[in-house]
Amino acid sequence: MPSGKRAKQQRRQAAQRTPPPVRSKGVGGVRPRQASPRALAIAGGVALVAVIAIVLGVVLGSGGSSGSGTVTKKDLQGLPAIGSQANPVALQGAGEANDLFKGIPQTGLVLGKPSAPVEMEMFIDVQCPICQFYEVNNLPTIVQKYIRTGKVQLHLQPWAFLGGAGSQSFSGRLGLIAAAAQNKGFQYAKVLYDNQGAEESGWLNGQMMANIAASVTGLNLAQWQKDANSSAAKSIASDVDKLAAKGHVTGTPTVLVGRTDGNLQNVLTPQQIAANQSPTLAETEQALDAALAHS
């Protein structure tokens, strides 16, 4: 499934396509079909009933799990107060996710020692299937070989562009950002990708976000729920969007590497970026080794 600039353009074009106006032949040629005043009145009454039903549905359902990804207190029911890879509701891969980052310094969305000579920045989308492949198959090697050894510090940027504004890419990443507020964001992201559903299928709702949080050892779920709905989390998300726009990021995953506090470069060539290719483990390691050699 595509997840780069091309996919974004395809979605936008599909959303903009509308069927032509319904037309009928009449006296004097072809003219637009017009509804009668009676038909308009009936339609207006139906629309009013529909609006009332929607409003009632929102009000009555406000205490439940939201498909948009908003986390409610009801989503925490049946879950432990503190997350754990050992609890009965822990999701697949929870043990591996928690063990992978255990003992590595983690501050917010930054993983690794501050003294690391090389910095790696990674833009991801929580719904992106190619990000899932990179996280599951490539990142563990990078963590063990470069980050745990103090050579590289990883800066995670939870970007959102799949599905457009209002999609679960935008709401779902708030759970990751909220976990990062307790320095558990990388564990949360790993569990999320280990259990990722189909893009734009509605899988990343509030209850799923809460289940992911419950799989992260040491995560306070009440505080996490509060942070996921906070203006601070939305502000961080907005800053990531601005950073992606400023850096002309066109797809996920995008991996940038360079000396710490220096200029970071995409591990892919301009030709590879134009071809909508994704970074491989070998390309990432080559870029990291080159940066380390000049640090």
| Largest sheet geometry | 6 strands, mixed
In N-to-C order, the SSE pattern is HEEHHEEEHHEHHHHHEEHH
Structural class designation: alpha+beta
Question: Which range best describes the helical content: under 10%, 10-25%, 25-40%, 40-55%, 55-70% or over 70%?
Answer: 40-55%
Total DSSP helices? 12
Give the CATH H-level superfamily.
Glutaredoxin
Termini separation: 37 Å
Strand order, largest beta sheet: 3-4-6-5-7-8
Q: Kindly estimate the percentage of residues that lie in beta strands according to DSSP.
A: 5-15%
CATH architectural designation: 3-Layer(aba) Sandwich
Q: Briefly note the CATH topology name.
A: Glutaredoxin
Mean pLDDT: 82
Cα shape: globular
Q: Residue ranges: pLDDT <50 for 5 or more in a row?
A: 1-68
Oligomer: single chain
Estimate nothing, just give the exact number of structural domains. 1
Radius of gyration: 23 Å
CATH uppermost class: Alpha Beta
Could you write a compact summary of the structure shown?
The protein has 295 residues and is an alpha+beta fold.
Write up this protein:
This protein has about 300 residues and is an alpha+beta fold. The protein has one domain (about 75-295): Glutaredoxin. It is about 45% helix and about 10% strand. It has helices at about 5-15, 35-60, 95-100, 130-135, 140-145, 170-180, 185-195, 205-215, 220-230, 230-245, 270-275, 280-295, and strands at about 25, 30, 105, 110, 120-125, 150-160, 255-260, 265. A six-stranded mixed sheet has the order 3-4-6-5-7-8. A two-stranded antiparallel ribbon has the order 1-2. β1 (about 25) and β2 form a beta hairpin. α6 packs across α7 (about 185-195) and α6 crosses α10. The longest helix is centred in the first third of the chain and has 24 residues, at about 35-60.
